[in-house]
Every structure is written in C-alpha cells, then in structure tokens.
Design brief:
six-stranded mixed sheet; alpha+beta; six-stranded antiparallel sheet; single chain
Length: about 550
C-alpha cells in the first residue's frame, strides 16, 4: 500500500484533577475523517486512565459506518514529560482503536509534581491488522483545533507510598547473608542501613530504638541471653506505616565470665547491658505526618550533649542530658509536622566549634539565596554560657570551655547574622540557659556561680522561644528522657499537628513548663518569648507552625 507522508499533528494533554473531555477533528489526504475524543481520568492507586473514542464521519461531517479503519500510535513514541515517574501499564507496542480504547499509566510514588504532560502521535491505518506496519500508516494532515489541553489535578497526597522501606543488616558481619555469629559477650551491636523515599520513622531491634548515626545508618546495642541462641529481629517502619523486617540468630556462649574478660571490660558492662535499651516517650512515637513538603522551609538543628569527652576537667554531670535525643526527635517533627524536606535540614550533634561555624555559615548562605522567600527554623539543645564581665550569652560548642569564649557563638551575633538578609520569618527554639547552670550541672556549677545574662533584642522577622528566664536553669524531664521545655514543645506540636498560633504556643509553654518544672524538678523554669522589634504590633501572635 502506498505510504503517505503528511504533516504529523501531536496531541498535548496536561493532567489535572478534573478529567475534561476534549473533541478533535482529524483528516487525512485520502479523505478519511474522524472525531477523536480524549478523556483523562483521575488518579487512583497511583494510576490514571486515558479513554479514547473515535467516530468516523464523511466530508460533510455526517456519521459513517466504518468497521475497519483505526486510529493508532506507537507506545514508544508517546512523549511523557515526567518519563522517569510515569510509565505505560501495558506492554502493547502499537495501540489502535476503531471505536473506543482505554490505556493505563502507572505513576511512581516518588513523583512530587502536580502536572504530567503527554503527547500522543496519532496516525491512521486502514485496519488493525496492518496498524503495526509503518508502511501502512498514514499521518493526519488536518486537525481542528490545532492544539488543546485537558486538565486533571494531582492533589497533595494523591500519590501514595506503596513500597516497604529497604533494610540491610550491616553488622554483625555476614548476618544479612544468613550467617550465624558466635560471641562471648552478653550484648551485640547491630548496625543497619534503612531508607525510604518518604523517610524512616523508626528502626527497632528487639524492641529497642536504634539511633541514626549517619545518613540512613542506624545502630543500637542489644543485650543477649548467655548460653543460648538469641533471635534478633529488626523492624524498619517508614513514615507512612510500611514496614520491612529481617532477623538473624546469634549464639552467646558462657565464656564471657572468664577473669580475662572481666578484667578487660569490667563487670559494670555485663551488669548494665540490659539497661541500654532505649526508652520511648509518648512524644517519640505516633508523630503526625504532613506528606506535602514545603520546599521553601529550612531548619538548623543542633544537639550538644557530650562536653566531658571533648574537654578535660569536666564531670559527667556537666553534660547536657538528653540533648541529642531532643535534637533527633525535633528533627522528626521538623520533617513530619513542619513539612520541611529532609534535604533542607542541617543536623549537628555534639558539634565542635568548626562544625557549628560551618553549619551556621551554610544556614546564613541559604537565607541569603532564598531572597526573602524562605522560612527558617533553628533548634538548639546544649549549654549556653555568659561572659562574666559583659553578661553577653553564648552558645557553646562541645569543645569550647568558659575560658575560651572567643571561640563560642555569641548569641547577639547569631541573631544579627540570621537577620542580615530578608526572610519570610525565622523561628528559634533554645533549650539552653545562659546563666552558667544546666540540666544537671552547668559549666559554672563547679564554682557554685550563676550569672544573670544580658538580654539580646531580636530584629528582622525573628522570634525566639527560650526554655528559661534570667538566672534559671533549663532542666530535664528524666521520666520522659527529654529536656522539659522540649518535651512540652513536642507534645503540643503532636497534639495540634502544628495548627497552633505562636501566641497559643507561647502561653502553653510558659504555663505548663513553669508548673511541671516545680512538680518534677522542684525548681522554677519559666520559658520566655523574645519578639523582634521589627515585627509590627502583634502580627507574630497569629503566625502558625504549619505556616500560612
């Protein structure tokens, strides 16, 4: 059959939430005329359908009966704007229809966009039998209208997570491949790699919560029963509730009680191994999830807990108990309640001076680059410290002592740099005190000294929620294994899912923490709010954690 080379007219669809049907008139130079209707459907189960209907007509646009002719197109020639995320569900090479046809597309759960564009290269063939032969295909030379669009919305949350997280057992070595290790100590360190596009909610090993030690790497120490083969079960849960599970067996032999072992590691390790399982407070679980991320939100989160390992002459009590746990849990709330993409979070724990300054410099740079459109959150749990002469408060890296404040982060400079360039708003949460006290013993506690720090006035679109006032300490809530300020901050974020005004949050923290601190710690602790002088009137009161 003669091959006709005519101008190809493509069809463009833009899918939105309403499947608006569009009709087109197509003609070939052979006199074959038809109406083609294209009707995209709604998203369902991470899929969508496109329905086609063709009606054959005469040159006078009157219906004619034609049981042979087909409209067709090659599947591989469908142009898809989001080719990495949208695929044709069937394996048909050539799609043809004489009357009606439905085709289905799959949408990857990783697709974050709101529109998908497709182009269908329609051609004519005299019958379905020859539709796959390019020699028998005839391109349409006439089309009205020349272009059209059909809209169908991908609403937030329409694309669902349908895949379990990935889980790989990294240690003990070989267990991921089925090996059964044998040890002579009553505990084992389990390290796993866990990841999921929607984020990891928890990694539990024998009901103990593993800590994230690096990107997608989690670790926990698990006690073993001596003289038995122990089963170790790891369960990874992603942020939408899907789980992955792996288990292995490990034999713990009795030789660990030998004098050589006891001399090497100490009886305290043996006696205390079972106590190393991690406690979960109510705020650590069941965190509400906002799957629609705000790409213009960013966070800097710092948890400085271990000061004694980085400085000589400090007692263990001078560490900031639970600071890393506070920061890690706040990070989960930042992702899931504040809707901050994980890639937009700078997370530091036990940060040394260079680590802190690099993190701050990066954060300041992001504020500048967003040109007033970004919204920023800072969370800090750790020691603060006052200059004994100027009373100026400082944030303390773990390797900086009170005698080396030139290397610490001056709070007034920190506020100034945050507001050096415009931003939509900046919210700071400080679970630290600046009197020299602390959750157990402050950096000045050995001298029995407390100093009332100088108050720094914020500027720009900055508001600061501080854990304590004046000479007060920022205290722990040992039953919950969090700082008491952070615990009630997280509790309110969980209860309201972030739908709370700053004024309501400030009133809640001040009243609740003040009362609970007296009941729990027998000490006063009154949170306060530092409001920028540049925020006109009471505008800040109606700001919400979840945004506009």
């Amino acid at each position: 059959m003669k091959k006709y080379v005519l101008s190809l007219v493509s069809v463009l669809l833009v899918l939105t939430s309403y499947g608006q049907q569009v009709s087109l008139i197509y003609s070939t130079d052979l006199g074959k005329n038809c109406f083609i209707r294209v009707n995209p459907g709604k998203i369902y189960d991470n899929k969508f359908d496109v329905d086609f209907q063709v009606n054959w007509v005469s040159n006078e646009m009157q219906p004619v009966k034609d049981l042979n002719s087909v409209v067709c197109f090659e599947a591989k020639k469908i142009w898809i704007s989001e080719k990495a995320f949208v695929t044709l569900a069937s394996d048909e090479k050539v799609i043809s229809f004489n009357s009606t046809k439905k085709i289905t597309f799959n949408v990857s759960e990783e697709f974050l966009g709101d529109t998908i564009e497709l182009k269908f290269p329609f051609v004519y063939a005299p019958s379905v039998a020859v539709a796959s032969s390019t020699a028998d295909q005839v391109e349409f030379s006439f089309k009205r209208p020349r272009t059209y669009k059909s809209f169908l919305a991908l609403a937030p949350g329409e694309i669902k997570d349908k895949t379990a997280p990935t889980l790989t057992l990294l240690s003990p070595e070989g267990v991921n491949d089925g090996s059964k290790p044998i040890v002579e100590v009553p505990f084992v360190t389990v390290k796993v790699q866990a990841s999921d596009f929607y984020g990891i909610k928890s990694v539990m090993v024998n009901n103990s919560l593993a800590n994230m030690i690096d990107d997608s790497i989690y670790e926990v120490e698990v006690p073993l029963k001596v003289g038995y083969e122990n089963k170790v079960v790891t369960i990874v849960t992603d942020n939408t509730g899907f789980t992955a599970q792996k288990e292995f067996a490990i034999e713990c032999r009795k030789a660990y009680t030998s004098p050589q072992y006891m001399a090497a590691v100490g009886a305290a390790i043996v006696e205390g191994a079972a106590e190393k399982t991690k406690f979960l407070a109510d705020v650590d679980t069941g965190i509400p999830m906002n799957l629609t991320k705000n790409e213009m939100r960013y966070a800097l989160i710092i948890g400085n807990e271990d000061y004694t390992s980085h400085q000589s002459g400090l007692e263990t009590e001078m560490n900031v108990e639970f600071a890393i746990r506070d920061a890690e849990t706040f990070k989960e709330y930042a992702k899931n309640v504040l809707a901050i993409p994980e890639a937009n979070i700078i997370f530091l724990k036990d940060a040394k001076v260079l680590d802190m300054k690099r993190g701050l410099t990066k954060f300041y740079g992001i504020i500048k680059l967003t040109k007033g459109q970004g919204e920023f959150f800072v969370y800090y749990a750790g020691h603060g410290f006052p200059d004994e002469i100027t009373k100026e408060p400082y944030l303390m890296p773990v390797d900086v002592s009170g005698s080396d404040l030139e290397f610490a982060i001056k709070l007034s400079d920190f506020y100034k740099k945050l507001c050096e360039t415009p931003s939509k708003r900046i919210t700071v949460f400080l679970d630290a005190c600046f009197s020299g006290g602390g959750r157990e013993m402050g950096l000045l506690a050995a001298r029995g000294v407390k100093i009332k720090p100088k108050e720094n006035q914020a500027s720009g679109n900055l508001i600061v929620f501080s854990a304590s006032s004046g000479e007060q300490s920022s205290l722990p809530y040992k039953d919950k294994q969090h700082g008491i300020f952070t615990y009630y901050l997280l509790q309110k974020m969980k209860e309201t899912q972030g739908n709370i005004t700053y004024e309501q949050l400030a009133e809640y923290l001040n009243s609740t923490v003040s009362i609970r601190s007296l009941l729990v710690n027998n000490k006063e602790q009154s949170p306060q709010v530092n409001i920028s002088k540049d925020i006109v009137g009471g505008a800040w009161k109606n700001w919400k954690l979840i945004g506009e």
